[in-house]
Amino acid sequence: MSSSITTAYLARYRSVAAGSAELLPVTGAQRRFLLARRLDPLGRPDLVPLFFTFPHGSVDLAVLRAAALRLAAHHPALRGRFASLRGTPVLRLGPAQAEVRRVTAAPGGSAADALRRELLALPADGPALRLLLADGPADEEELLAVVLDHAACDEQSLGIVTAGLSAAYQGERPAGDGSEQERTEAYREAVELQLAAEAAASDERGRAHWAARLGGLRSEPPAPPAAEPSTGMLTHRLPAANGAARGAVFPALLDAVSAAARGLRGPGAATPALGYPWGGRPPAAAPVLGCFLNTLVHPAAPGPAALDELSGAWWDDLDHADLPFDEVVHAARTAGARWTGALDGLLTFEDLDRRPPLRLGAAAGRETHLSGRPLAAPFAVSASHGQDLLVRFAWDRRLRPEPAAAEAFDTLLATLRHHLGATAPAAGA
Question: What is the reported pLDDT for 425?
Fold first, then answer.
């Protein structure tokens, strides 16, 4: 096995853990999120919040707290805390913890305003699972935020959380057989299989692919950190892609987001670097809750307009998707890129058919989305594919005025329509 960042990490982990049962290794994706947290000037964690509306008074907070603790106790990624031992990141197991509390809107404010305020104030050293139930005016629905540390979850984990929380609220045991020790060993094995895949991908072929793809990237000076984010959001619904077009949704999104990014940068600017999560559990691993995705990088250079060519380039990237992000950055810089690893835009995609709904007792939560949250890049596009294709475009208002963002979003939608044949918006856009 060739020397790589992953193999070096494993050697350090084995040295500091020394066979300890409570110290588990972390994946390449977790290394990235933990490093980003340490480098953030404000020390903010990267959080994944889901928002659900419930009828006023339908959620029993005491039952919800017991359910959250039951869920956290069932999953090592939730009952552990990330730590650094002699500079080596690890997951330290401990008693189950979850933060569950009610927050109240300020006079004249809304439940959404209250949650935005709370999310900004959440400390990085809190539990991996936090549930915040916000009250609005007496006649307003309650708003529940299910907040997960991104280092402890990925897209596949979201379905495990909504299904597990629904079952635990009913007093049932979350899915997954075995004792606590057996579940811990299943998680450890999944992480070790992931690290083995990352180490195997860190060969000359993988490094050469990303060096060629990203060697021309150049980072722009970062914006100064803001304690209070100023984030705008635009949304639109397109018809769901059906048949053969369904498999082309993601490469079409990549090209559409690339076109928007180039529009925001302007002519003559450096090629934007877009990041998108990809991956899942290793084939032999149990379907445990955790963070097993990798962040792939897409250079948003002008490219071919034909969807088959776009798909071909994307599949070539997926052939090298196991190379961890820190190794990708190293390969690009070795090839001459003046790139810090900072991403100019983010794209996330979720197939809603894969995620069970959140049901608390007799009430089913209706998922909603909140604008105004801090972003990990100058702009971010989130696409949810279910009965329609919901596209959300969020951007940092400090960097781009609203007219420029609106023009970029129009470009994104026009490119999507071109590729997917969607000529009219879906109802309720």
Answer: 42
